[in-house]
């Protein structure tokens, strides 16, 4: 019984102590930990008490208890560990579901420190559970070997994890527990304030967004010629994006750049292939190569030569539309169409061609159209290989997607469409590419004149020249890598046609990037606002400029054109088409409301959408013709070149990796690039996976090429991103900087994460473990790589490629290369996917990290897709989508492409890409469709939702807000690129969308607007624009690189931390997100690039996700449904004007939605949409006036005014105005005389009045002892003494006044005269003071005056006498 | 009568002693509650806890307490589902699933489509007349439609022709009000700038000629505004009418429809009226029969009188008598000219030759100030002060505001008036109403 008694005592004691743990107090936790250690015998009881405390504690006090658990587990361990583990999940979930985002961040950090504490199974189950609550929560497949020191503060650990990236989060993870608590408190306070500020900013932004949304909504419905355009657009976009990235990178490491340039050249060559015949052949070769390594190599060579020329052409085409057009047309359309068609069915060549050119889309298309068969084949191959499982999964979704895509696109077969669209696509693609290029160049180089593709790039940024050189160099590298890849991929490709497709798309993107700044530009324009802006600067100066000028409010009209051009390439258009801007906005708003998406994300989305729409419009109007023509040729060339590169890459993934490594080495200084490379790699794999076997080979090659080409661009992007982030970090608050840095990092990570994530999804269990392991290793390795990156990466690449391809190998490669990258990538994934959830759930420290993640995630989506990633992603994704099950491929491909692009620039990146390729392959094996989908979904989710959401949520805290704001800008920048990408996609997809569904357009618009708004809103935007642009254009590269390098460093650490966390998260997110991925793919198809991804991620994400999910499950049907729903949202209301009861009895959700959309005024519940920002501002002003009036009311008498006159009423518009002119005309007229009198009187007062003090009110003249007459002066809001003058601090009557001059100051006279004059004066005053009289005073006076003048006088006299008497008596006394 | 989800949470009582009742509403249901009328009645506070809800078309802010005074009859409707807390003891509170809100919303949707059409075609927006007998929720439907319209960015105009229960100004007037923001949940529409015409009685029947005349005036002015203001034109107008739907009341409705050239007539819960209007109005006028809400409460004469009193009080003292401070001052008889519109009806046989009854209804009859003026509400006409010649425009001139005679001193030839604004009076032409107001509070 003693035991029982002791137990009871111990429990009671512990219970009481525990109840005091209401805040995060390190001492207290330590005490409780010691107490728990002392009562180790009663561990179960103690644990029960603690768990009960967790259950019953208020939400705000749960975290400290959880920290206690953490402390006990880590410091005491033993039995506690086991006991706590039993209910760990339920306890954790209990806390997680009740707490806010900041706390969730902390939770995330906390959980990230448990890898060494709790069984991995447990943690995995925990991740899964949490992920079910918050999709953003990353699931660690394999518990990464976390540094997580067992000791004490989770916070401290989080810091370790997050330290570099997440300054804001750090607060929680204070270095020492004690310090942590204080720091946390302070930081939390700061965060809270920052959140408030951010909230306010967000509201403004939201308003703007809403406005833009409204505009967009009002705007077009994108036609659906999505598939072909999407594909083309996608490819170009990635290329463009990647190219810029690469260039920036290249400049830093010229030596390495040389190879890179060669790679770039390959891309260019690829672009060169754009010549119709070449592109096709090349693609075919590539396709062949994927399965058969030999062929790819050949193709690459061809492509290489072509590419150099092509890039020039492409560049020139931008300037010279005609050239570009032919190039782009021939390559992109053909390639795409061919690829798509051939891939699924038979012709590997076609596949290769398609994949190479506009791989993603084409592949997707092909997959979608003829894809099923192809897919099946691919699947079969994959199945044969280890990847079979994955493939199956992927296939499931892919077929659906295909069907959806088919449906969306129309009944027309992909081939037909492709054929018909090819020309369009080509043109569109070219235009897109041009646009992208232009955008990039523009962005990079402030001067539009530089815009000429090559010249522009070079000119734009100092780095450009090096870049150009690098590009040239890169192409060779790419070729090599391609050859290597092709060899490697060959197997994979054969096994995984889908993968190859995706890779092709990616590759195409990469090629596009190099070859076609055009494509990039186009992609930018279409997808990303920045791109668009760049594009506009370059070609359609006005259009592009417009986006730039009004990043927040891109002109919707522009977008349509882009879309048209893009349509051919983009599959996304379908989704986009299906979803109108309004729909997208609505969805986004809903999500925001539901908390799925953060406000920031939402805003970003809106901006992007706006931009998209604008771009589309612009494209449609201006570009459609010229752009399309020019761009298409370039794109085609690019595609071809890309395809070849891809093939090569596939053949020799190792070589590619080596190249990457080399590049990385060259870039070694730039960790970011390296990271990008890995990311790219991962992305590449993704695309491959989605696309399937045929694409895989091609894709890989493409990816590789793209990476190569992209490497330069990608690095730039990364750098840019990084730089922005860094800049922001420096400039902004620590939280913000962190956010920014995270973003930059995220962007880098994003790709990596994506890469990692994809593998996980495909081979969920095994991959996860593998991935985790790699990821974990990755971070570490990444760090190493950062320092040694070149060396490390190459070996890894070499070793990994083969093995990796099939499965583990992927992870391995990715790990080695990316270490940094991987870390980043995992993080990205984490952020992307889990990011939102984590962010939300994460604790403060976690928050920082999460924020970073979000940022990263966002960045990734934006950066990746928009920036290097963007370019690549956009291309890749779009391509992937179009081609395959397209959507699946698309998403994956997009991301991969982005990554590839990023990687492409740096040698190291190539390695990364190689690795990435491997992952993709894995994905393919696992299940191309699922893998890609998962990635895409996750990415979109993470990107769109998480970034935005994250930002908003996290930002809610002051720090967060700032962070978001900063991020936002950063994001915006990224987004801008993305937007440009999306626009491109849109452009490509645009036509399809328009044709298929109007809804799609709205989404696009939203995307565009979102991105733009974000930029505008964010202060950073300018920076972003500058940076992104430069990056894109390559001009910025050098500067960016420098920034990027630091940023990279920052990111790397973060990445490392992130990776650990992210990796675990990734697996889960991927799975959940997988459905989303399809959606993303769809979007990607439509928008192809970043815009789509962003849209998907943010506003679109949800819509996309649903779409994706439907696609995967029942691709076609779901998509259609979604589209329909989207349509319905805007058009679901039949013509009710007949007031038929049958119709009237139906609930039309859109009506309700419309009533409840927009930001709600917190004071009056009125809602204001984005289009009503100004109104909202006015409205708030009105509230302010009202409140002010209310305050003033205490001083003044308020009364109802006389009604306004007839004319006033007829003319009046706003109440505010009315209030302003409260004095209506007739009043003024009537009062004219009075006014004059008042003025005259006022003059007298000015000279004769003295401000009365409290005791002076009844003061009498010092000379005559006569009381002063006090009166109220409205303007002064104080009492004055009439006819008084202050002399030597003494008040006396002003005897200069007539009454005193003329009248002798005899008391009698004074009494007689004064009352009269006073009365007169008072009457005047009354008139004057009508409006201002105080309640008490006015009535009194009035009554006195009006009721009985004589009596009044008498009274006054009496009063005066009394007063004087009293005064005199007082004086006497004195 | 779904009462599920209702649970007493006395512990949550925000204010001391107030009982908190939580209602969880499913989507498309509404919580109806009435606050006990009477001086001593306790106010009821309502708070939206979760979800989104609206009160007569005005969305609620979450976690904001809305206070409803005695006699309030409130319906909290939710399209998405919500939970609401009531603090205090409402006379009755229940959740209803059966509401015509969907029809009302779709009516708004249809009107919105017409507005869009008008926007496209550069035409005028829909002009809607809401008709029906008393106590069918006409005013509520108007408020709903107006709030919905303004919530989607329109600028509709409320034309208040219900002289008995004006929602805009004091009773005995017809008015038009530009709606720029949704009605305040507690206070209703902001009445900063209405256009008000003096009618003088609480029922159109006392001077149907004047009523129709004023209707035409309003229509004319509104048309002018539509010409000037495009948004107002597109926004159209919602016309609230009297509950008098028979005889000359019906004729007045038809006249109103023609004067405003209404496009849509919403008939609430009156099939006969619906069919009559459908028969008598041009074919292009869409006459729609809508059900009334089950939540509509029949108001007694006493209730109506109190509502009128409250409306006048609100004019002088502001909402709940808190926001405005009226002025009281004396006006000399010589300063003002007081008229009554419409001569007492006399047998035709007694009319001067050549005069018809109609003429007398619009005639300005000078009123000699006397003690019987006490407590009467006087409208201050915006007609320019002038000689007899200026009289003609007086009837058709809007009013600047209202004063109440609180005391008449026939010896001093002055009367003490309660005025919303300090002296002097903006105009000196006063129109006497039948309505009296005793400032008892």
UniProtKB/TrEMBL annotation, chain A:
Segments of skewed composition (Pro residues): 161-172, 758-768
Start and end residues of each stretch annotated as Disordered: 156-175, 223-569, 614-886, 1106-1132, 1323-1374
UniProt keyword terms in alphabetical order: Acetylation, Coiled coil, Isopeptide bond, Methylation, mRNA processing, Nucleus, Phosphoprotein, Ubl conjugation
Pfam family, one: Pfc11_Clp1_ID
Sequence ranges assigned to domain VHS in this UniProt record: 29-118
One cellular component term from this protein's GO annotations in UniProt: cytoplasm
Every CID domain range: 6-134
GO MF entries: mRNA binding; phosphatidylinositol binding; RNA polymerase II complex binding; ubiquitin binding
Bias (Acidic residues): 1117-1132
SMART domains documented for this protein: RPR (SM00582)
Biological processes per GO annotation: mRNA 3'-end processing; termination of RNA polymerase II transcription
Gene3D superfamilies hit by this protein: 1.25.40.90
Coiled-coil positions: 190-217
CDD domains with a match to the protein in the record: CID_Pcf11
Described function: Component of pre-mRNA cleavage complex II, which promotes transcription termination by RNA polymerase II.
Name of the protein described by the UniProt record: Pre-mRNA cleavage complex 2 protein Pcf11
Record organism: Mastacembelus armatus (zig-zag eel)
Automatic annotation (TrEMBL), chain B:
The Clp1 P-loop domain, residue ranges: 132-318
Pfam families, A to Z: Clp1 (PF06807), CLP1_N (PF16573), CLP1_P (PF16575)
CC terms in the record's Gene Ontology section: mRNA cleavage factor complex; tRNA-intron endonuclease complex
The entry's keywords: ATP-binding, Kinase, mRNA processing, Nucleotide-binding, Nucleus, Transferase, tRNA processing
Compartments where located: Nucleus
One Gene Ontology term of the molecular function aspect: ATP-dependent polydeoxyribonucleotide 5'-hydroxyl-kinase activity
Major location category of this protein: nucleus
Residues holding ATP: 30, 73, 135-140
EC number: 2.7.1.78
Catalysed reactions, as listed in the record: a 5'-end dephospho-ribonucleoside-RNA + ATP = a 5'-end 5'-phospho-ribonucleoside-RNA + ADP + H(+); a 5'-end dephospho-2'-deoxyribonucleoside-DNA + ATP = a 5'-end 5'-phospho-2'-deoxyribonucleoside-DNA + ADP + H(+)
UniProt keyword Repeat present: no
GO BP annotations listed: brain development; mRNA 3'-end processing; RISC complex assembly; tRNA splicing, via endonucleolytic cleavage and ligation
Top-level taxonomic group: Eukaryota
Clp1 N-terminal domain sequence ranges: 25-118
Subunit structure, as described in the record: Component of the tRNA splicing endonuclease complex. Component of pre-mRNA cleavage complex II (CF-II).
HAMAP family membership: Clp1 (MF_03035)
Family affiliation: Belongs to the Clp1 family. Clp1 subfamily.
Protein name as catalogued: Polyribonucleotide 5'-hydroxyl-kinase Clp1
Organism taxonomic ancestry: Eukaryota, Metazoa, Chordata, Craniata, Vertebrata
Gene encoding the protein: CLP1
């Amino acid at each position: 019984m003693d035991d029982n008694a002791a137990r009871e005592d111990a429990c009671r004691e512990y219970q009481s102590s525990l109840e005091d743990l209401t805040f995060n107090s390190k001492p207290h936790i330590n005490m409780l930990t010691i107490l728990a250690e002392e009562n180790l015998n009663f561990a179960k009881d103690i644990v029960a008490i603690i768990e009960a405390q967790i259950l019953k504690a208020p939400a705000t006090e749960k975290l400290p208890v959880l920290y206690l658990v953490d402390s006990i587990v880590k410091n005491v361990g033993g039995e506690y560990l086991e006991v706590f583990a039993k209910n760990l999940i339920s306890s954790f979930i209990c806390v997680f579901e009740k707490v806010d985002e900041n706390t969730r961040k902390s939770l995330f950090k906390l959980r990230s420190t448990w890898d060494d504490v709790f069984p991995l199974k447990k943690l995995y189950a925990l991740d899964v559970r949490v992920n079910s609550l918050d999709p953003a929560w990353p699931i660690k497949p394999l518990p990464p070997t976390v540094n997580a020191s067992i000791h004490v503060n989770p916070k401290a650990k989080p810091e370790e994890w997050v330290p570099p990236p997440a300054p804001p989060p750090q607060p929680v993870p204070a270095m020492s527990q004690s310090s942590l608590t204080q720091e946390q408190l302070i930081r939390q306070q700061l965060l809270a304030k920052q959140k408030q500020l951010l909230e306010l900013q967000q509201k403004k932004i939201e308003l703007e967004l809403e406005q833009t949304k409204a505009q967009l909504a009002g705007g077009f419905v994108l036609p659906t010629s999505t598939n072909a355009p999407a594909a083309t657009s996608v490819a170009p976009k990635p290329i463009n994006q990647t190219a810029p990235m690469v260039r920036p990178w290249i400049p830093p490491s010229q030596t390495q750049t040389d190879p890179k340039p060669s790679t770039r050249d390959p891309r260019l060559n690829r672009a060169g292939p754009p010549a119709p015949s070449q592109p096709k052949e090349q693609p075919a070769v590539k396709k062949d190569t994927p399965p058969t390594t030999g062929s790819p190599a050949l193709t690459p060579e061809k492509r290489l030569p072509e590419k150099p020329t092509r890039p020039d052409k492409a560049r020139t085409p931008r300037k010279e539309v005609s050239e570009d057009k032919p190039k782009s047309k021939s390559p992109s359309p053909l390639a795409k169409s061919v690829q798509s068609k051939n891939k699924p069915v038979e012709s590997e060549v076609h596949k290769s061609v398609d994949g190479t050119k506009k791989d993603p889309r084409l592949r997707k298309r092909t997959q979608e159209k003829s894809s099923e068969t192809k897919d099946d084949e691919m699947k079969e191959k994959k199945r044969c290989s280890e990847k079979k499982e994955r493939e199956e999964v992927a296939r499931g979704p892919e077929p659906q997607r295909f069907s959806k895509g088919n449906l969306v696109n129309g009944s027309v077969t992909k081939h037909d469409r492709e054929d018909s669209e090819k020309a369009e696509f080509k043109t569109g693609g070219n235009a897109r590419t041009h646009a992208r290029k232009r955008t990039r160049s523009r962005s990079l180089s402030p001067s539009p004149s530089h815009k000429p593709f090559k010249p522009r790039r070079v000119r734009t940024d100092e780095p450009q020249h090096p870049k150009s050189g690098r590009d040239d160099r890169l192409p060779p590298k790419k070729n090599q890598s391609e050859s290597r890849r092709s060899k490697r991929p060959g197997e994979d490709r054969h096994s995984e046609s889908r993968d190859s497709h995706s890779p092709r798309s990616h590759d195409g993107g990469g090629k596009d990037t190099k070859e076609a700044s055009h494509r990039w530009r186009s992609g930018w324009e279409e997808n990303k606002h920045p791109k668009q802006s760049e594009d506009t600067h370059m070609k359609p100066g006005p259009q592009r400029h417009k986006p730039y000028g009004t990043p927040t409010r891109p002109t919707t009209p522009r977008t349509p054109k882009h879309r048209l051009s893009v349509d051919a390439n983009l599959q996304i258009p379908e989704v986009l088409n299906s979803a109108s801007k309004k729909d997208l906005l609505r969805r986004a708003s809903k999500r925001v409301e539901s908390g799925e998406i953060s406000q920031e994300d939402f805003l970003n989305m809106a901006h992007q959408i706006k931009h998209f729409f604008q771009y589309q419009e612009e494209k449609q109007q201006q570009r459609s013709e010229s752009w399309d023509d020019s761009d298409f040729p370039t794109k085609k060339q690019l595609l071809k070149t890309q395809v070849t590169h891809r093939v090569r890459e596939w053949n020799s993934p190792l070589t590619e990796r080596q190249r990457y490594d080399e590049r990385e080495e060259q870039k070694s200084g730039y960790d970011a690039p390296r990271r990008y490379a890995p990311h790219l790699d991962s992305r590449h794999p993704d695309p491959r996976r989605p696309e399937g076997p045929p694409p895989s080979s091609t894709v890989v090659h493409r990816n590789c090429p793209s990476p190569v080409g992209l490497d330069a661009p990608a690095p730039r992007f990364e750098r840019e991103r990084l730089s922005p982030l860094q800049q922001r970090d420096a400039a902004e608050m620590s939280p913000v900087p962190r956010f920014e840095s995270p973003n930059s990092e995220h962007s880098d990570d994003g790709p990596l994460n994506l890469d990692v994530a994809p593998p996980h999804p495909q081979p969920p269990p095994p991959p996860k473990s593998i991935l985790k392991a790699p990821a974990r290793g990755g971070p570490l390795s990444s760090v190493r790589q950062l320092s040694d990156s070149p060396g490390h990466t190459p070996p890894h690449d070499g070793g990994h490629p083969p093995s990796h391809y099939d499965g583990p190998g992927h992870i391995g490669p990715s790990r080695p290369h990316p270490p940094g990258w991987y870390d980043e990538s995992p993080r990205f994934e984490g952020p992307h996917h889990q990011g939102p959830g984590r962010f939300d759930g994460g604790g403060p420290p976690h928050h920082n990290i999460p924020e970073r993640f979000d940022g990263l995630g966002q960045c990734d989506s934006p950066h990746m897709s928009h920036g290097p990633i963007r370019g690549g992603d956009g291309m890749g994704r779009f391509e992937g989508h179009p081609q395959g099950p397209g959507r699946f491929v698309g998403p994956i491909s997009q991301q991969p492409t982005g990554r590839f692009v990023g990687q492409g620039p740096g040698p190291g990146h190539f390695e990364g890409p190689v690795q990435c390729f491997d992952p993709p392959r894995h994905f393919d094996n696992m299940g191309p469709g699922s893998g890609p989908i998962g990635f895409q979904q996750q990415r979109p989710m993470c990107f769109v939702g998480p970034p935005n959401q994250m930002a908003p949520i996290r930002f809610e805290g002051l720090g967060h807000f700032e962070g978001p704001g900063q991020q936002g800008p950063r994001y915006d920048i990224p987004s801008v690129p993305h937007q440009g990408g999306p626009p491109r996609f849109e452009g490509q997809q645009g036509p399809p969308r328009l044709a298929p569904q109007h809804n799609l357009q709205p989404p696009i618009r939203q995307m565009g607007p979102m991105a733009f708004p974000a930029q505008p809103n964010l202060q950073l935007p300018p920076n972003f624009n500058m940076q992104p642009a430069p990056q894109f254009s390559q001009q910025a590269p050098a500067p960016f690189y420098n920034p990027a390098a630091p940023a990279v460093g920052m990111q790397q650490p973060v990445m490392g931390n992130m990776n650990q966390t992210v990796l675990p998260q990734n697996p889960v997110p991927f799975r959940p997100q997988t459905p989303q991925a399809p959606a993303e793919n769809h979007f990607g198809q439509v928008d192809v690039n970043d815009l789509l991804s962003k849209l998907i991620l943010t506003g679109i994400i949800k819509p996309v996700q649903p779409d994706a999910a439907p696609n995967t499950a029942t691709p076609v049907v779901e998509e259609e449904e979604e589209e329909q729903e989207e349509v319905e949202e805007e058009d679901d209301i039949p013509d009710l004007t007949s007031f038929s009861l049958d119709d009237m009895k139906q609930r039309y959700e859109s009506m309700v939605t419309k009533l409840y959309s927009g930001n709600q005024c917190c004071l009056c519940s009125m809602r204001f949409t984005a289009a009503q920002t100004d109104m909202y501002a006015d409205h708030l002003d009105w509230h302010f006036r009202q409140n002010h009036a209310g305050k003033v009311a205490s001083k003044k008498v308020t009364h109802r005014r006389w009604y306004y006159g007839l004319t006033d009423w007829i003319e009046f518009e706003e109440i505010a105005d009315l209030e302003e002119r409260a004095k209506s005309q007739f009043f003024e007229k009537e009062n004219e005389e009075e006014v004059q009198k008042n003025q005259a009187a006022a003059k007298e007062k000015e000279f004769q009045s003295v401000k009365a003090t409290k005791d002076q009110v009844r003061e009498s003249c010092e000379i005559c002892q006569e009381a002063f007459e006090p009166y109220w002066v409205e303007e002064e809001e104080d009492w004055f003494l009439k006819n008084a003058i202050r002399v030597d601090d003494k008040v006396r009557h002003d005897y200069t006044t007539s009454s005193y001059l003329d009248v002798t100051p005899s008391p009698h006279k004074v009494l007689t005269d004064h009352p009269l004059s006073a009365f007169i004066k008072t009457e005047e005053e009354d008139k004057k003071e009508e409006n201002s009289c105080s309640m008490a005073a006015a009535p009194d006076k009035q009554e006195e005056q009006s009721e009985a003048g004589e009596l009044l006088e008498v009274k006054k006299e009496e009063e005066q006498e009394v007063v004087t008497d009293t005064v005199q008596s007082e004086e006497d006394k004195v | 009568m779904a009462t599920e989800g209702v649970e007493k949470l006395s512990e949550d009582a925000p204010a001391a002693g107030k009982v908190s009742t939580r209602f969880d509403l499913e989507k498309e249901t509404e919580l109806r509650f009435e606050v006990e009328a009477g001086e001593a009645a306790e106010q009821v506070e309502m708070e939206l806890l979760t979800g989104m809800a609206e009160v007569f078309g005005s969305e609620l802010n979450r976690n904001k307490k809305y206070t409803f005074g005695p006699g309030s009859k409130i319906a909290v409707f939710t399209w998405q589902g919500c939970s609401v807390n009531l603090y205090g003891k409402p006379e009755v509170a229940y959740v209803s699933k059966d509401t015509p809100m969907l029809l009302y919303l779709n009516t708004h949707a249809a009107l919105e489509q017409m507005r869009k059409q008008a926007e496209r075609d550069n035409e005028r927006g829909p002009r809607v007349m809401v008709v029906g007998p008393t106590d069918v929720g006409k005013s509520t439907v108007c408020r709903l439609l107006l709030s919905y319209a303004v919530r989607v960015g329109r600028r509709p105009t409320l034309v208040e022709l219900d002289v008995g229960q004006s929602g805009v100004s004091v009773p005995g007037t017809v008015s038009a009000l530009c709606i720029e923001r949704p009605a305040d949940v507690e206070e209703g529409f902001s009445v900063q700038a209405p256009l008000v015409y003096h009618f003088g009685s609480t029922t159109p029947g006392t001077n149907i000629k004047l009523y129709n005349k004023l209707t035409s005036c309003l229509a004319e002015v509104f048309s002018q505004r539509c010409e000037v203001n495009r948004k107002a034109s597109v926004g159209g107008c919602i016309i609230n009418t009297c509950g008098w739907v028979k005889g000359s009341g019906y004729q007045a409705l038809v006249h109103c429809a023609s004067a405003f050239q209404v496009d849509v007539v919403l008939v609430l819960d009156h099939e006969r009226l619906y069919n009559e209007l459908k028969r008598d109005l041009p074919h292009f006028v869409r006459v729609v029969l809508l059900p009334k809400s089950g939540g509509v409460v029949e108001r007694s004469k006493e209730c109506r009188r109190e509502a009128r009193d409250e409306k006048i009080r609100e004019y002088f003292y502001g909402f709940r008598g808190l926001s405005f401070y009226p002025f009281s001052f004396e006006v000399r008889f010589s300063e003002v000219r007081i008229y009554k519109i419409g001569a007492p009806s006399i047998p035709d046989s007694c009319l001067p030759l050549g005069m018809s009854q109609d003429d007398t209804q619009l005639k300005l009859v000078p009123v000699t100030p006397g003690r019987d003026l006490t407590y009467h509400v006087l409208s201050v006409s915006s007609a320019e002060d002038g000689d007899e010649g200026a009289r003609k425009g007086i009837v058709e001139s809007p009013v600047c505001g209202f004063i109440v005679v609180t005391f008449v001193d026939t010896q001093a030839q002055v009367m003490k008036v309660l005025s919303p604004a300090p002296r002097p009076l903006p105009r000196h032409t006063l129109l006497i109403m039948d309505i009296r107001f005793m400032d008892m509070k």
